């Protein structure tokens, strides 16, 4: 143990390594964010030619290439639908798996196996399935199903962990007070696991909103935002692409910060209830 009050050299070495890792992780995003504020005559590289919000205003004008407004709307609607579905199914499955039933093991492994299958293969398989069935792939149909194969396993695993340590005495107390199963679920179970449900919803929203591989073969003729950005990289030669990337990143951060704020408020509310 170091009793001199000085930190060992290993501390500074590891701190420097961690700082380099953070720079490697967020440096590209930070660079894109800076370049998005280029002046009207600015390009895609340094040095910057002026500083302005010109390219952000350009986003909301009619583009020669790309459909920013439509793709953003589709991605947000798809992410919200996936979020709600993931929360409902994860909660239902978590409740069901609290008791063993025939085939529960097989059903569990069939659910989580999609995590180890390459995403592009799942996208290809779902796209081919719709085509063989004579149904045109769409962002609200086949892409919706493809995204659920990505979000549901995470939601289920979270719910399994939550119910594994859930104190069943709360439900027993509600039953003793003549509460119906629905009342027990609504007024006892859900309030206790609400922070976890919010976390499942955040997983569902962010994973769907940013998903590319499971969308590329299933969205049909209308792009979601990740596909639109990918398409714009081969056609757009102005910082409007950087402005788009920065704005979409901010939307993700706002969703995360908003969720953390909700969790904080729920925690404070629970503390006040327990104190009262």
UniProtKB/TrEMBL annotation:
| Topological category with respect to the lipid bilayer | Multi-pass membrane protein
Q: Does the keyword Glycoprotein apply?
A: no
Q: Give the residue spans that cross the bilayer.
A: 12-37, 76-97, 106-130, 142-163, 184-207, 240-266
User: What are the residue boundaries of the ABC transmembrane type-1 domain, all occurrences included?
Assistant: 72-262
Extract the CDD domains matched here.
TM_PBP2 (cd06261)
SUPFAM superfamilies hit by this protein:
MetI-like (SSF161098)
What are the subcellular locations of this protein?
Cell membrane
Q: Family assignment? A: Belongs to the binding-protein-dependent transport system permease family. CysTW subfamily.
Q: Which PANTHER family match?
A: PUTRESCINE TRANSPORT SYSTEM PERMEASE PROTEIN POTI
Q: Protein name, please?
A: Inner membrane ABC transporter permease protein YdcV
Which gene specifies this protein's sequence?
ydcV_4
